[in-house]
Design a protein that fits this description.
It contains 6 helices and 6 strands; from the N terminus they run H-E-E-H-H-E-H-E-E-H-H-E. It has 162 residues and is of the alpha/beta class. Helix 5 packs across helix 6.
Amino acid sequence: MHYELYMSAALAEAAAAAASGERADGAVAVLDEAMVAHGREQIDATGDPTAHAVIVALRETARRLGHRSLSGLTVFAVVEPCAMCVGALLQSDADGLVYALADPSEGACGSAVQLANADGLTRHLRVVSGILQAEAAELRPDLATSRGVAVRGAISGAAVAR
């Protein structure tokens, strides 16, 4: 899988969200090496508190594919998703999640709470973190400074959890 390519697309969505006055977060949905949908934060624009980038991308994917089961899907998100978004990924049967920046206050893949691979749940996500972290930190300095991420220099290493 072309992690940096897909994360670059998510970063472009995040930049577009920021340019429109939203919080800088973006996501792309990938199935069989093809980007099938994208999403960006749209909470202020829509007045919908659930219009997070991951949710927007999942809704668009389900609409385009014509069904709710998104088995085989991997979502690339700039920021570690919250509990609502991870719950939606699990309920959609998505296989994987790749994110750039951890969110220590709301992240549901281990930073604030572990929902992506929680014991007792029947569904789990393959999670990869840290892809294009430095580039994401430039868009989200609020998370970069709280996590001590080096904003300069390419950080493209990844941590993988199952």
